[in-house]
Amino acid sequence: MRILFFGGHKLGGITLKYLINQNKEIIAAVMSDTNKKWYQGLEKVADEYNIDLFKVENINSDEFVSKVRNDLKPDLIISVNFDQIFKKKMLNIPDKGCINIHASLLPKYRGRAPLNWAIIKGEEKTGVTVHFINEGIDTGEIILQEEIEITKDDYISDVLEMVKEKYPLMINKAINLIEKGNYETVKQNKEEGSYYGKRNPEDGLINWENSAEKIFNLIRAVSHPYPGAFTYLDESKILIWKAQVIKAENKSHKTGKVIEFRDNSFLVQCGSNQLLITDFKSETKLKTGDIFNGK
């Protein structure tokens, strides 16, 4: 079965390499022609295994659609962390269809940054879904779905590692099912779902009026390898990578106030409860009594 692989990021590269080593017939790989490092990751694998790699600004252009239809002639198209939307004229080319893998339990958390959003919202589980691509955003019929537990101590890097293990295995399993014609799909119920948009670095600004639990979820969601949660002391930016929620009924402190230092950590008053900041980066020396001027 002739497979055309569209992808980006490390997850795209890892999945492509796994499929090649599983002797899948990858006829070529496609990535966006972009300077954004987040969507790069296929070059090294394509070079190592001598796979033709196309860098394309618009996959739905008449020129590229014609090349796929007349020259590449795929039976199946796979999308892994690809950042462009497939239009109808591309979707209609492969006889076996087009499939995508998405890091959520669809129909929940359709759209961008699903893992970050799930942690921000305090979810206790997420998952990975392989689905057929239609003209909507992550709305196609589901082929496979597996859950991933999110513990209260998990940061985004921990969840990404769990997802990284599932991506190649689930895509490979979906290919085998499609090739044999041995699968049943589940139609998504949009009324049970949700959609979230992309996140930007500035979205990591902390609002100290929020509860310690809500701020903690934000910190976990945008910590490494993302830009990080942050606040300001006057004009100085402080990046916050890790923290712990401290239950405290004392509301006499102003929100955003540094209450005390504990070794290399410091305690901050939130709208309710407090946060012990255990990993941070600051270009200015912090002291007890400082008040952060976040939102």
UniProtKB/TrEMBL annotation:
Matches recorded under Gene3D superfamilies: 3.40.50.12230
Domain Formyl transferase N-terminal: from-to ranges: 1-167
Membrane-crossing residue ranges in chain numbering: none
InterPro entries: Formyl_trans_C, Formyl_transf_N, Formyl_transf_N_sf, Formyl_transferase-like_C_sf
Keywords: Transferase
Formyl transferase C-terminal domain mapped to chain residues: 200-288
Entry GO CC: cytosol
Molecular-function GO terms, alphabetical: methionyl-tRNA formyltransferase activity
CDD domains linked to this entry: Arna_FMT_C
Highest taxon of the lineage: Bacteria
Protein name per the record: Methionyl-tRNA formyltransferase
Organism: Halanaerobium saccharolyticum
